[in-house]
Amino acid sequence: LQDEETRKDYDYMLDHPEEYYRHYYHYYSRRLAPKVDVRIVILVTVCAISVFQFFSWWSSYNEAINYLATVPKYRIQATEIARQQGLLNRTKEKGKNRRSKEEIREEEEEIIKDIIKNKIDIKGGYQKPKIYDILLFQILLAPFYLCKYIVWYCWWIYCFTIKGQEYGVEEKLYIIRRYMKMSQSQFDSLEDHQKETFLERQLWIRENYEVYKQEQEEELKKKMAMDPRWKRYRRWMRNEGPGRLTFIDD
Length: 250
What we know:
- By secondary structure, the chain is mainly alpha-helical.
- The chain has helices at 4-15, 20-31, 38-68, 72-84, 101-119, 135-140, 142-162, 169-180, 184-188, 192-200, 206-226, 228-239.
- Among the domains are: 39-91 and 100-129, no CATH class; 167-240, no CATH class.
- It is built from 12 helices and no strands.
- Helix 1 packs antiparallel against helix 2 and helix 4 (72-84) packs across helix 5.
- The radius of gyration is 32 Å and the shape is extended.
């Protein structure tokens, strides 16, 4: 009875002995209540998710590097850079330091991958992971991001709504990305010529974007109409369909 809440329950039991089941409920609810602080549980969970995120992103990044190392376009360029820098010549040693062909091949492969990592900027979901992107740092930096967004939003209203300034290239691309409902990483993964096309067609203007969206939908429908797989699927849906009921006797 050292706990204040327990003493209150005890006094209530003495005053109301007829509430038999209620006393048992309060007793066992306190005895079986978890002793661990909920804040510690939340912190450990967030840390575990953050560690999983980081290693998962590293795995995706390494998969992208390994794939690019097999693409002839990037492999030839990386090999040429390695030769110019004299990195491949170092792998061919003689005498006591001579190594097997397998060891030389593995070292050359690592050199090519390192050059690809340094020369190619991978964007989107396979980009190089940053520690500030994991959940733990996102939660810690949430107040900073919120203040930054408020300042940016006020600046946007002041410059383009109140003063009526013309949009710059970055502002135009931002509006286009919002219309397309794409995240920043998704938009960054697009090719430069695609973004130039967006600017040439002035897609930051809502009417122009609606026309462009309609054109893309029509083009997608045409591709689907000409795709043999979609033709087979439509033929199957027309002739059989999923679980169609018939009254034909077997």
